[in-house]
Design goal:
- The complex is a heterodimer.
- Chain A is mostly helical.
- Chain A is built from 20 helices and two strands.
- Chain A is globular, with a radius of gyration of 21 Å.
- Chain A starts with a helix and ends with a helix.
- In chain A, 60% of the residues are buried.
- By secondary structure, chain B is mainly α.
- Chain B is built from 23 helices and two strands.
- Chain B has helices at residues 3-13, 17-41, 69-88, 97-116, 120-129, 131-141, 146-175, 180-184, 190-207, 216-223, 226-251, 253-258, 260-279, 284-303, 308-339, 350-353, 355-369, 375-390, 392-417, 424-427, 434-452, 455-472, 488-502, and strands at residues 50-58, 61-67.
- In chain B, strands 1-2 form a two-stranded antiparallel sheet.
- The longest helix of chain B is centred in the middle third of the chain and has 32 residues, at 308-339.
- Chain B is globular and about 65 Å long.
- Chain B starts with a helix and ends with a helix.
- Classes of the chains: A mainly alpha, B mainly alpha.
């Protein structure tokens, strides 16, 4: 009996911790922010440690609602690490923003979102999936509008909420169709139904479920909310959306596509191929005209999700392993880039988001510019940075699965993407310097930037072999 | 060899300008010394791959290095030109020196890596990574229109390469290995070969550059700083030729034979067209850039001649062109540093103002034309001779390129060095300084050495050429020249006599 709880130990730790911290913050008020934040980070570290236990690979439990395996453990590790980073970078940002102080609800909401995400990636049942998704979404809506006095933040929260609710509706409708035509909400039984005769209802259910997940992943054609929400939300929250949320949504897509709808690969493969190519192209083209760095990174995330989906389109264990590897690298690149954005402040210490403000950064802050250049070249997929290895892995899976047109088109579109990443580098290195950034430097943020930059630089090659083995093991646990 | 400049590059970033210059120079000289040790230790007639270094398995690819004769010579070219580049930018670059030196050292690492890589994907990584420092060198330290040029350079080359990457992935999957020596012995199905060949062609043709995808080169050359041009012309262009030699020919012999016509047509057009374009240039660097395209076309026809003369000639053209065009860019750089213009019309009469400079400039002009006694003659003669055996028409058309080359180079030299001194500024220009003399003299010595005794350079690659020819022998197209022994001379002689008497 205790085994069952050990299988979900990480989530239990986080869930109980979040509730306790909520009480603390209710009594302690704004004064307790610091303590609550660091406790939350400690809880996340504890959850990561809990993931290392053998029970985390224990299999299906809770009467088929839950599945603890290597895949889930890997995805959760990424999610928890990203969440912890997003909590750590928040105080600096809110301190500098006039009028809106950081309140202790922020880490609590982050924890709750992390629990939701963990439930999503470990789901073995459509209901677990839905509950996890909603927990994560509701926390995210609040987080997006966390800067109460900023109109853009409120707009972002509202937009995210309305569109997110619509997407949840679509997903729920798909779930009901799948349930109706397969007779179960458990992935194992659904897979059996898809392996049998394909009915129109099952097909519709599949399409709706994918549409709902596509919204969460911000995949074209369900991406419209992304730039607005990313721009309006406070930067640490945007970082959270771009990293942890992406991982959970992508992992969820893998989980449901492979475990529940694996036999229907021919059906969803078309959807995924279209979505991948459309995201790559639109993410690349849409970013070209942007002047706001957060909007640019939003389009960049759409573009990158497209590449991640290329691995899913392959529909093989190799493809899934490549996706997980891509996600790990993507988190480091995106996190690093957003923390650099956090350093962009005017003389009074107020955040600025104009790309033009980066002008001549290589003269005023050479180390910061170098780190940003590393992230940009890595996102563009230029070797010898790790972003290239990630792209290589997903495309190798696609080529090995015989999807040559997808590989060729995807690579050609990546050249379009290279253009706007290059533009950021150009602004930093080639243009005349803009006024130097104000505000004091933050040791934690600097450390995060440095760590991410070193990870995606060729030094990260040392990690390629262990990471490859790890992702391969994680992917095997699904098939 | 890779570690020295890599460490120096990192060190440069933390140093002040003057220190960075010395560290960079020291690092490149150490690499040159290591290169000489490498050459001395290279066993001619020994195994194909020497100095093999089996590294760690990095997931999908391996860190495997090793060189054969082709790679050895091109690595030598790189390490030879590198200290000269650093020297050339000693005084002309005053802005952000540490970054500049770091970018150059990084370029050196990547170039050596490209030539030494024994793994398909490792090759690609080095090949592509070279774009980043080059982009920065052109973009930060380039001329007025540098942003446009750097973008064009980067995106053009990247687009060509990604297609090649897909082909590489396919090859890795089909053959089950990414090891270059193994792939060189693997036979792909002929139909597939054509596609793979075209994919590689897309990348190498841009890099080479072949007509009509050469348009990035004049822009990049003109805007790049002097040392950037030297590296671009001297070594980066050779990556294309090396790629054909290492991948296209041995891995896809049938497709190569089948598509030889494409290479010949494009090269023949390139030779004539770019030579004519060079004739009307008013910017010195642009003129030399167009002449580079013409010379690289002679490399490609030589490579696809499928015989010993052609391949050896192509290799020699690459080495010779690397030295000569690098030296010509240096010559332009020397007077650009004095007058800050590359307009040919602004100069004139330099032979009386700067006699030593004029002498070196003349030597390199002659080498570029292919005068006997210089490296250019040996190289182009071999290459064209090889081509003649396969396609007389191509050889004929390309030979006109030599005549046109003489025309535009001599025309350039006349306008710059002879005639009247145009202005007081020109009259006041000092002759070569000691530093500049030390930059040009080693290249001049190498050019003459290669022209007088090319055997030193041919010996290391002889076995490799033999292996390459053995590999592609089965696909070799029949030539149209077909000289029958004993028939050509007697028949030709009476005809010749008849023509004489007719006059």
């Amino acid at each position: 009996m205790t085994d069952i709880y050990l299988m979900a130990l990480a989530e239990i730790v986080l869930g109980l911790g979040a509730i306790a911290l909520m009480l603390v913050s209710a009594w302690g008020g704004p004064a307790s922010t610091r303590a609550v934040s660091w406790t939350a980070v400690a809880l996340l570290v504890g959850a990561c440690v809990a993931l290392t236990g053998p029970e985390s690979y224990g299999g299906i439990s809770f009467n088929g609602l839950w599945r603890a395996d290597a895949f889930g453990a890997f995805a959760k590790l990424l999610i928890f690490a990203a969440t912890a980073a997003c909590i750590v970078i928040a105080p600096g940002f809110f301190q500098r923003t006039a009028g809106d102080d950081l309140r202790p609800e922020y880490p609590v909401l982050m924890l709750l979102a992390a629990v939701g995400m963990a439930a999503m990636v470990s789901a073995n049942d459509l209901l677990t999936l839905y509950v996890g998704l909603e927990l994560q979404s509701l926390a995210s809506y609040v987080l997006a509008s966390f800067m109460r006095r900023e109109a853009r933040s409120a707009e972002a929260g509202l937009k995210y909420f309305v569109l997110g609710a619509l997407a949840s509706g679509i997903l729920l409708y798909g779930i009901s169709l799948v349930y109706g035509f397969s007779g179960s909400t458990q992935f194992g039984f659904i897979a059996e139904a898809y392996a049998g005769t394909q009915t129109l209802g099952l097909l519709f259910g599949l399409v709706f479920v994918f549409a709902g997940i596509a919204f969460k992943m911000a995949v074209v054609p369900f991406h419209m909310w992304t730039p607005d929400v990313y721009e309006g939300a406070p930067t640490p929250v945007t970082t959270f959306f771009a990293t942890a949320s992406k991982v959970s949504a992508a992992a969820l897509a893998i989980r449901i596509a492979v475990t529940a709808m694996g036999p229907a690969v021919a059906q969803w493969q078309q959807i995924v191929i279209f979505a991948a190519l459309a995201s790559i192209v639109l993410g690349a083209v849409g970013a070209i005209g942007q002047t706001n760095i957060k909007r640019l990174l939003a389009y960049s995330s759409i573009n990158n999700v497209g590449f991640i989906l290329v691995g899913l389109a392959a529909g093989t264990a190799e493809g899934v392993a490549a996706m997980l590897f891509y996600l790990a690298v993507y988190i480091a690149m995106t996190l690093g880039a957003f923390v650099v954005v956090l350093q962009m402040r005017d003389a009074a210490g107020q955040p600025i988001e104009d790309i033009a403000a980066l002008s001549g950064l290589s003269r005023t802050r050479p180390a910061l510019a170098l780190a940003m250049a590393v992230f940009m070249f890595s996102l563009a997929g230029i070797p010898p940075l790790l972003g290239f290895n990630a792209k290589l892995a997903v495309f190798q899976a696609a080529v090995n699965a015989g999807l040559y047109p997808l590989a060729v088109l995807g690579f050609v579109a990546s050249v379009i993407g290279a253009y706007y990443y290059l533009r950021v580098v150009k602004v930093m290195y080639l243009d005349a310097p803009a006024p130097e950034f104000g505000g004091e430097r933050n040791l934690v943020e600097g450390g995060l930037i440095a760590a991410s930059a070193v990870f995606v630089s060729p030094v990260g090659w040392l990690l390629l072999a262990p990471l490859g083995a790890w992702t391969a093991a994680a992917a095997r646990s699904l098939f | 060899m890779l570690a020295v400049p890599a460490l120096a590059a990192v060190a440069c970033l933390f140093l002040r300008a003057e220190q960075a210059r010395w560290v960079a120079l020291a690092a490149t000289l150490i690499d040159l010394a290591l290169g000489i040790v490498l050459w001395a230790g290279f066993e001619i007639g020994g195994p194909q791959w020497q100095f093999v270094e089996r590294g760690a398995d990095l997931g999908v690819f391996r860190w495997d290095l090793g060189i054969d004769g082709f790679a050895l010579l091109l690595i030598m070219l790189s390490v030879f030109l590198m200290p000269i580049c650093i020297g050339a930018s000693w005084r002309s670059v005053t802005d952000r020196v540490p970054e500049y030196m770091a970018a150059f050292l990084l370029t050196e690492v990547l170039m050596i890596g490209t030539f030494a890589a024994q793994d398909l994907l490792l090759f690609y990584i080095f090949f592509e990574a070279g774009l980043i420092p080059m982009y920065l060198i052109i973009g930060i330290w380039g001329g007025a229109n540098r942003v446009y040029a750097s973008y064009k350079f980067f995106l053009y080359t990247l687009l060509g390469s990604v297609v090649m990457l897909v082909a590489m992935l396919y090859m890795a999957y089909t053959a089950g290995t990414t090891s270059i020596p193994a792939l060189m012995a693997y036979d792909f199905a002929p139909g597939v070969q054509t596609w793979l060949w075209l994919a590689f062609f897309a990348s190498f043709a841009v890099k080479m550059p072949m007509w009509p995808v050469h348009t990035w080169l004049p822009d990049a050359h003109v805007q790049a700083p002097t040392a950037g041009s030297v590296i671009l012309a001297g070594v980066l262009l050779k990556l294309g030729g090396y790629g054909f030699l290492r991948f296209s020919l041995p891995m896809f012999p049938e497709a190569s034979a089948e598509l030889t016509w494409l290479i010949f047509v494009l090269s023949a057009v390139a030779v004539v067209y770019t030579s004519l374009v060079a004739l009307v240039q008013s910017d010195m660097k642009k003129l030399i850039a167009y002449s580079s395209v013409a010379h690289m076309a002679i490399v490609t026809i030589g490579l696809y001649a499928f015989n010993r003369q052609g391949v050896e000639g192509a290799m020699m053209v690459m080495l010779s062109h690397g030295l000569v065009s690098g030296a010509l860019f240096l010559c332009v750089g020397v007077i650009y540093d004095r007058l800050h213009t590359r307009e040919i019309a602004r100069y004139g009469g330099l032979s009386s103002v700067m006699p030593r400079y004029a002498l070196f400039f003349l030597l390199f002009t002659m080498a570029s034309i292919g005068l006997p006694g210089t490296s250019g003659f040996v190289a182009e003669f071999l290459s064209l001779m090889g081509t003649y055996q396969i396609s007389t028409w191509t050889a004929l058309i390309c030979t006109t390129g030599i005549i046109l080359g003489a025309a535009y180079m001599l025309y350039l030299y006349r306008r710059v060095a002879f005639g009247e001194v145009r202005s007081e500024e020109v009259r006041a220009m000092p002759d070569l300084s000691g530093r500049e003399l030390w930059l040009l003299a080693p290249i001049a010595a190498a050019v003459l050495w290669m022209g007088v005794y090319p055997e030193s350079f041919m010996a290391p690659m002889r076995d490799d050429v033999g292996r390459l020819l053995a590999r592609i022998e089965r696909a070799r197209p029949a030539g149209d020249s077909a000289p029958t022994p004993g028939r050509g001379v007697p028949v030709a002689a009476p005809a010749h006599a008849a023509a004489e008497s007719h006059h």
